[in-house]
Write a structure and sequence with these properties.
This protein has helices spanning 23-30, 77-94, 115-132, 182-190, 196-206, 212-216, 232-244, 261-266, 272-281, 293-300, 317-326, and strands at 42-44, 53-58, 61-70, 98-108, 136-143, 148-157, 173-176, 222-227, 247-250, 285-286, 308-312, 333-339, 344-347. With 348 residues, the chain is α+β, with helices and mostly antiparallel strands. The longest helix is centred in the first third of the chain and has 18 residues, at 77-94.
Length: 348
């Protein structure tokens, strides 16, 4: 076997963060899990659907722990490894921390995939970890029916720098740091319909580390942060709304998009996860009466290694947006606001 005879995406029933369980299914699975709040050092657990767990060690140090893995959304094994690693490390940045090490999670159909491809996946992941300045210090592998790769990541921060998804304040401005449309692009890849330039655009955004999150954690004007991944802009905005007890208003026309995302969505290149997302949380989202379905798919599109959704003080929004852009996210945009009201999302 050589690496050109196998399409990674053909070995998986889904790809990237589109593999995530629908929000409604996840809620059912976690409904009767024991509460973790009895541990006073556990600052962030499962109570608010946040991005990572946070454990306070002492007055100056918190440990951040997360894991993320999925099946391939691209056919190039090196790119797959890079995307999966970038996505996993993002959870630490989303909490306001810095990563310190990672462990690899690997499942491969050993009878269907050449060893060389698996090596390239691991190389891609290690390359991203090197860029983040952390080692891949170990891991675990299994023989698996579909290819799976990701990381468990450990990070640290000062307790004052922890940024939950549940501490937005009324009147906050919402900033999104990366463009949307990764799931739509991956649907086009499945059908060999994504132009080469669009593929490069997707690789660029999905392999850009969200390290700006560690700087945002130091800014008192930043109240809440989460990363936008498998549940789409609507789903993660709704998690922020529910956690903070607020209503979110999103300006659909201000949400940054990958260049071909609207055209592809209008032509039917959407994922099954986008449909599952909407079925799970659509009852808490108000859309304009005249919004076509393809535009809705842009907002429920599952992102893989997506951007950070930042809730910040209105008077600081301009300077924070400029700092984000200067930090390597030129496509960052203000996309909405929070206000008092029933936890929900209104799209205007």
């Amino acid at each position: 076997m050589n690496t050109h005879t196998v399409r990674l995406t053909s070995l998986a029933h889904g790809g990237g963060c589109g593999c995530k369980l629908a929000p409604s299914v996840l809620q059912q699975l976690l409904a009767d899990q024991p509460a973790a709040a009895v541990y006073k050092q556990l600052l962030v657990g499962t109570e608010t659907s946040d991005d990572a767990a946070v454990w306070q060690v002492d007055d100056n140090t918190c440990v951040i722990a997360t894991t993320d893995f999925f099946m391939p959304m691209v056919d190039d094994p090196y790119d797959f490894g890079r995307i999966a690693a970038t996505n996993a490390i993002s959870d630490v940045y989303a909490m306001g921390g810095k990563p310190i090490m990672a462990l690899a999670i690997l499942g491969m159909p050993v009878d269907k995939i050449p060893v060389e491809m698996v090596r390239e996946i691991l190389k891609g992941g290690a390359a991203v970890c090197g860029t983040a300045g952390i080692p891949v210090a170990g891991g675990h592998s299994i023989d698996c029916p579909e290819p799976v790769y990701g990381l468990a990541v450990i990070g640290t921060c000062h307790p004052s720098q922890v940024r939950r998804n549940s501490e937005a304040k009324p009147g906050d401005v919402l900033i999104l740091t990366k463009p949307v449309g990764v799931g739509i692009y991956s649907a086009a890849i499945k059908k060999s319909a994504l132009p080469p330039a669009a593929y490069q655009e997707m690789i660029e955004t999905t392999t850009t580390l969200n390290r700006i999150g560690a700087e945002l954690g130091k800014d008192e004007g930043v109240h809440a942060v989460t990363d936008v991944t498998g549940f789409g802009v609507l789903g993660h905005a709704l998690e922020l709304a529910r956690g903070s007890g607020l209503s979110v208003v999103l300006q659909a026309g201000d949400v940054p998009l990958l260049h071909e995302a609207a055209m592809l969505a209008e032509n039917g290149f959407v994922t099954g996860a986008s449909h599952r997302n909407w079925a799970s949380y659509g009852h808490d989202v108000v859309l304009p009466a005249d919004m076509p379905e393809w535009k809705r798919h842009l907002l429920s599109d599952p992102q893989t290694s997506g951007g950070l959704l930042v809730s910040c003080a209105e008077e600081r929004a301009g300077s924070i947006l400029q700092a984000i852009k200067a930090g390597g996210f030129p496509g960052a945009r203000i996309i909405g606001k929070t206000e008092a009201g029933r936890p929900s999302v209104k799209v205007v």
